[in-house]
């Protein structure tokens, strides 16, 4: 697999540091460099399957690439050191993928953490907590909350999201994502999940919620946040497929996700708390 030199990777990341102007979701995502995705995948192979690692631009890496680019944008926009709360950090997959981001201090939160692993991956601090209870952080205490592919596992998503909004500072942002589908199918799927949970067919911790664009945007609005970006991920994902060696194929998937977020397989949002 072709990888970037550290100098080239730095140039690609620097492209994100140009002045950020108000723009559509489509334009913002389309200007983010895909070579940054290829470079980071090659440096964090353990996060992906062998089939995904066999291509340069695996669709399965979009969630990490999207968050990485949004964090680089945010660090530049704030113009000062930022605190990132990775709520649902697991073993630090996102921090491992992003590598170093100048001025960012990371905190990991999850129901169970492995301190040595998180320390090795660059987290400055960590806390064990139950996302169905108030988070162990003060109001308005972090600049960025990252919450990727967690909310679909939580018993009270509205309560848990309210806690995310509580801990982010005015002017800060929540970067969140989940699987997605159209609203009607989403409601039917959640009813199915909840029925299986009530009958003991699945346990807490599995997928028990289903999200769509309108539900995410409503959560943001009800908690005083502005949805700055709503981005679907793909219309076709097949790990190891030769098409995933071509940047234009990933761009095409992203364009579809911009136009039809609830039909994009996964959905990602940047939600800002007004100052």
Question: In summary, what is this structure?
Answer:
The chain has 275 residues and is α/β, with parallel strands linked by helices. It has eleven helices and seven strands. It starts with 5 loop residues before the first helix and ends with a strand.
3D structure, described in words:
The chain is α/β, with parallel strands linked by helices. It has one domain: Vaccinia Virus protein VP39 (Rossmann fold). It is 40% helix and 18% strand. It contains eleven helices and seven strands. Strands 3-2-1-4-5-7-6 form a seven-stranded mixed beta sheet, with helices on both faces. Helix 7 links the parallel strand 2 and strand 3. Helix 2 packs antiparallel against helix 11.
Say what the CATH topology is.
Answer: Rossmann fold
Number of domains: 1
User: What name goes with the CATH superfamily?
Assistant: Vaccinia Virus protein VP39
> How many helices does DSSP assign?
11
Q: Could you describe the largest sheet, including whether it forms a barrel?
A: 7 strands, mixed
Labels describing this entry:
275 residues, alpha/beta, Rossmann fold, seven-stranded mixed sheet, globular
Topology:
Blueprint lengths: L5 H9 L10 H7 L2 H10 L6 H4 L8 H17 L3 E6 L5 H6 L5 E7 L4 H6 L4 E4 L13 E7 L8 H11 E12 L3 H16 L14 H10 L3 E7 L14 H13 L6 E7 L3
Parallel strand pairs: 1-2, 1-4, 2-3, 4-5
Antiparallel strand pairs: 5-7, 6-7
